[in-house]
Amino acid sequence: MAAVSRGSVVVATAIRDLAASVRSLLPDVDVNVIQLDKAGLVPASSLCQVSGVVLCDPKVVVQLIGQSDLPLKWVQSTWAGVESIMSAVQESKMQPTFTFTRTGEGYGQVIGEYVIGHVIAHERKFKQMFKTNESRIWDANYKYIRSLSTLTIGVLGLGQIGTEITRMCKAMGMTVWGLATGQQKSDHPYVDEFRCNNDLCDLLSNCDYICNILPSTPLTRNLLSGEVLASCAKRKSVLINVGRGDIIDEDSVINAVNQGWIGGAILDVFAKEPLPESSRLWTLPNVTVSPHVSGPSQPSQVAEGFGNNYRLFCEGSPLKFQVDWKKGY
User: Fold this and answer.
1) What is the rounded CA–CA span in Å between residue 266 and residue 208?
2) With contact defined as beta carbons under 8 Å apart, do 239 and 185 qualify?
3) By CB atoms within 10 Å of each CB, which of 30, 64, 109, 174 scores lowest?
């Protein structure tokens, strides 16, 4: 890859203090900041300033896809997800000429904390405890618990984030199963049992918790929809979705809870966001809804990932977390 003139990048983001973090990590680089409008886009009057190397939010990436006359070399998104961007590419029926990468570093720790936090909260019945606390009820039944060391979690997706989740779960004494395609168990030291997609039902039937961190691809969409979660009935697994909302449709989650196949669901991502007020998930027993906040973008972490890639770019080396326009991930 031919490198552009070293020392100049454009930052167009709504993430507070991100540009300052980039400047701190790359003191010899000229960081040009573009203020976004209320819609989170680059104003038309400022588009001419966007060129070369760009760090920006997904909305801006979508905007740039339609600006074929801009001299772009490499664009990195501040988010890990690329679904909206890939949809824009499909709609435009044009493959962008610039190299595109996503932010793939820095999310493992915070998403792992979200997962572990909810597992502990579920096992210790914190939600019920809050209610009895408000009612001033002394309920000794909360002492009957399951220790995490007696539990098994199945992690669907063993990329950077999934691997960090397996590490954190293993550190808590949990037995860890992992699901991935085309990877060897030796690549994942924190996974006790490794399964491929063909053995998904085996994993589902042997885990107390199922944590999805898979990306959205043609192979993963609706992977858990229909009656797939019936395999969880033996252990009443709890579904945790911090990956992508289209891994399972809403009706399938509701049916799995009502049928008693799963013991509950902790959902941070949805096929349609924001989740409509009319959704039955809001009031379904043993279901926790959070507004896509399991892995918020931290300025220092986004900047660090970009800085690492920028150095590779200047060296002419392959970039990390590069997205294949044809594959969509």
Assistant:
1) 13
2) no
3) 30
Strand 193-195 to 175-179 pairing: parallel
Classify the phi-psi angles of 328: left when phi > 0, otherwise alpha if psi is within -120 to 50, otherwise beta: left
DSSP assignment of 189-251: TT-SEEE-GGGHHHHHTT-SEEEE-----TTTTTTTTTTGGGGGTTTTPEEEE-S-GGGS-HH
> What pTM does this model have?
0.89
pLDDT, tens digit, 9 for 90 and up, residues 34-87: 999 999 999 999 999 999 999 999 999 999 998 989 999 999 999 998 989 999
Residue type at 313? F
Instruction: Return the biggest CA–CA distance within the chain.
Output: 68
Q: Choose the weakest-confidence range: 121-135, 177-191, 233-247, 269-283.
A: 177-191
Q: Which two tokens stand for residue 139?
A: 């309920």
pLDDT digits (tens, 9 = 90+) for 146-158: 999 999 999 999 9
CA torsion, ordered 116, 190, 164, 161, to nearest 10 deg:
-110
